[in-house]
Every structure is written in C-alpha cells, then in structure tokens.
Write a structure and sequence with these properties.
single chain; 442 residues; 7-stranded parallel sheet; Rossmann fold; alpha/beta; Alpha-Beta Plaits
C-alpha cells in the first residue's frame, strides 16, 4: 500500500495533509487485506479518506464501467465525499447523484460511466431501476454512515441495491454508532473485519455538558442571553422541527443577532449557502434540525446548544459530536424551561451557567459572503477570483477569506467593512470574459 501512495500524494498535499492518521492507515490496510470491513468511527474522524484511498488504488484505467459505488444517507454527505475524491486528483471520473438534482443531467453524465459513483440510496436505486446505471460490474460498495441511512428509512432501497450487486467483491460499511447487528439484507460469507474508534474519540476530546434554566416556558430569552454572553463563539443550535428552526432564526434576527438555518425543508441550494456561510465565518450561529448532526463538512464548533432536547440518547450523542472532536475541547449546553427536568440520558451535567442580566449584542461577524454567478462549468478558478478582486477591486489578499466554487456559482468571504464598496467597483467588470452577477449573499 505504501508503495502506491504516490498516486495521490499531490492531492493530499493540496489538502494540506502531509501524513495520514494512525486510524486512516489502519483502515486502509484493513480494506486492502479484507473483502468485508466495518468501521465504527465518529463524524469528523477522517474516515472518508480512509476508504477512498484503497478504492483509488484498486481502480483500473479506462474500464468502461462503474467500478465502485458509495452510498451516503444525505446529499450533503454525498457531495462532501465527491469533493474529497476530486481533491485526491486521481484522474478517475466520478459522478454524484442525489434527490433534488436534475435526473436528466445525471443521465448525461452517466453515458460515459464513471469509475466511481456516489449517491443517496433513493436516487441510486432509481438509476438501477431505469437502467441508467449497470450494476453488473460494480466490484466495491461502500455504505457510508449506513446506520443513518437506516434511520432515514432507506431500508428498502438499500436492500434493492445490495441485491443488484451480484458481482460484488468488496464491501466497506461505516457507522457512527456501534450497532448490535447488521441489517438482515447484508450477508457476508464470513464475519467482517471490524474496527472501532469510538472510545478513542471520546478520550481525545474533552466535552463539557452544561445547562441553563430559563425563567419562562419559552426558552428564547435564555438562548438570546446566552449568545450575547458568549460573544463571537461559533454555535450550532439544535431544534426538533423545521418550523422551530425558522422561528428561532427569525427571532434572533429581530434581536440583531445574525444566524442562518439548516433543515430538510430547504431547497438544496439554500442548504449549501447556509453551510458555506457557516464555514467561512459569515455567520457564527446555525439553527438546525438533527439533519446537521452528522455527515456534514462544517468546522469545529465551540458550542452545541440543545434548544429543544432530542428524544433519544443516540441523537444527543450525535449532536454533541459536532464539537470536542479530533482532540479539541467543546461544550454542549442544554436549555431547560422553568419546570423541565434533565433528560435521563444526560447522566447529569458538569455545571449550570448563570446568565448575566445586562450583556451587549455580539458584534457583526468579520466576514460577509459575496455571490458570484459563475463557477466550475464556466472554468472559473479560485486564482481567477482572487486576482480579479485584488486588481479590479483594489483590495489586499488579506481582505479575502474562504472561497467555495460550485458548478454554476461561487461564494467568496470578504471583510465586511469593504464589501459594499468592493461590489460597487467590480459589479459590471468581466472575469475571464464573463460578466457574472456579483452581490452579497443574504
């Protein structure tokens, strides 16, 4: 395995990775030595690279058929896996398929079969049924976070897909929870090789669990007070329903506290924009349902706030898993109404937070996000955008933050205090003979 790492060294280097973790190396070796592997590892531990690297090693150039299939429970995770694969710069074609994406566009991309196909169970099962993907020669299958796929009700689709992979030679299953048994439709000739890293993750990060007691049945006042007291901390606020997320975010805006929402009722582009702004620092508070508790590429978060308590211990663990990851420390805060008891699964809290009576509203985030109406399909690169903004906008490189380029659009973090003047200067100027719309992304 080590002798073939040169295939992707440039890709790893471009991602700022000089050395793989011991967990990644162990998983790579296990996958290359065994036909069935189950990896139990929390979100954010680097398992995507761990299963992609041995898959890249096994791919044959110009095969003319799909060689590996990766199933993910959500479109966000599927897109995240696709991006990691592209960052490896292996030279192999990849196609990502998911609900909400035009089916005809995916069909066109699949006319020349990719080496790797990534997608959600519902959409991949649909491609199998319609014959736009031939499963006959798929040799490797990955069920990433398969426990989440089961939780979301994809049992039937996953069973159909598994049954269609008649010539499967290798299977990799990953999960963030240690299930007592595998689903009945998954059958192995021999017991799979199992690797678990849950205890390692728990010992590496230090998670404090604190609580707040609201003076009223409505917890919003306590939440707003907490946010003001914590200042510019990054925060993921969990609620149980979509309408609650919208309501809380709207109320925060009325208090001049910038936040955004993330839930399953949003269109895919809206969800992507919310995550982009959260990643680049344009917003520091994201109000979300449990959809954000797993499988998302978001930065280390200082505080996870349980505005509404989840019903199960498992959901509580997954929410808290967004902080205190990868040897970092973090804090989960439970907001309780005036007569609400601590849930039995918390096993107590480290301390209660005393809220201050008079605190200032947090300052606006340093960054704001610009929308650029052109992207990868227009051959637009990060270098093009940086050069354009520096030369035509007359700003410094330090005024530009994270850049995310999608197929037909790009999002650029710039310093908030220069954003309006920057837009005025560059609004009607061409980038690479393009004249895309440039505006602040709200």
């Amino acid at each position: 395995m080590v002798g073939r790492m040169h295939l992707i060294e440039n890709g790893l280097s471009s991602m700022g990775i000089s050395k793989l973790t011991s967990m990644q190396m162990e998983v790579i070796e296990a996958v290359e030595a065994n036909n069935e592997v189950v990896v139990i590892s929390p979100t954010g531990s680097g398992k995507t690279l761990a299963f992609l690297i041995p898959i890249v090693h096994s791919l044959k150039p110009n095969a003319g058929f799909v060689q590996a299939l990766i199933l993910a429970p959500t479109r966000e995770l599927a897109l995240q896996i696709e991006q990691v694969f592209r960052n490896l710069k292996s030279g192999f074609k990849v196609v990502c398929c998911y609900g909400g994406h035009p089916f005809w566009m995916e069909t066109n991309s699949l006319k020349e079969p990719p080496a790797i196909l990534i997608g959600t169970p519902g959409r991949i099962a649909d491609h199998f049924r319609r014959g736009t993907v031939n499963p006959e020669f798929i040799g490797t299958v990955v069920l990433d976070e398969f426990d989440k796929s089961l939780e979301l009700g994809f049992d039937e689709e996953m069973e159909q897909i598994w049954a269609a992979l008649a010539n499967r030679q290798k299977a990799i299953l990953t999960s963030a929870t240690d299930l007592l048994s595998l689903p009945s439709f998954i059958s192995f000739a021999n017991p799979p090789t199992k690797l678990s890293y849950l205890s390692d993750a728990q010992s590496e990060g230090k998670l404090l669990i604190k609580a707040i007691r609201s003076d009223h049945h409505d917890k919003f006042g306590a939440l707003a007070n907490l946010i003001c007291q914590l200042g510019d901390a990054s925060m993921l606020v969990f609620v149980n329903h979509r309408d609650a997320a919208d309501r809380v975010s709207s109320l925060l805006l009325e208090q001049d506290i910038i936040s955004d929402v993330f839930h399953g009722g949003m269109e895919q582009p809206e969800r992507e924009r919310s995550l982009i702004k959260f990643r680049n620092g344009s917003i520091r508070i994201l109000v979300a349902t449990d959809l954000a508790s797993r499988g998302l590429d978001i930065p280390e978060i200082e505080y996870v706030v349980h505005y509404q308590l989840p019903e199960t211990n498992e959901a509580f663990i997954h929410r808290n898993g967004r902080t205190a990851r990868m040897k970092a420390s973090g804090c989960a805060v439970i907001i309780l109404s005036e007569d609400e008891p601590l849930p039995p699964y918390t096993d107590g809290v480290d301390s209660f937070i005393e809220l201050c009576a008079d605190v200032d509203t947090p300052a606006m985030p340093q960054w704001v996000t610009l929308y650029v109406g052109a992207g990868k399909k227009d051959k637009l690169s990060k270098v093009d955008i940086v050069g354009f903004l520096i030369q035509q906008g007359d700003i410094a490189k330090e005024d530009i933050g994270r850049i995310d380029i999608l197929d037909k659009s790009a999002f650029v973090a710039v310093k908030r205090d220069i954003a309006q003047e920057l837009i005025r200067k560059v609004r009607n100027l061409p980038i690479k003979k393009l004249k895309p719309t440039i505006a602040i992304s709200w």
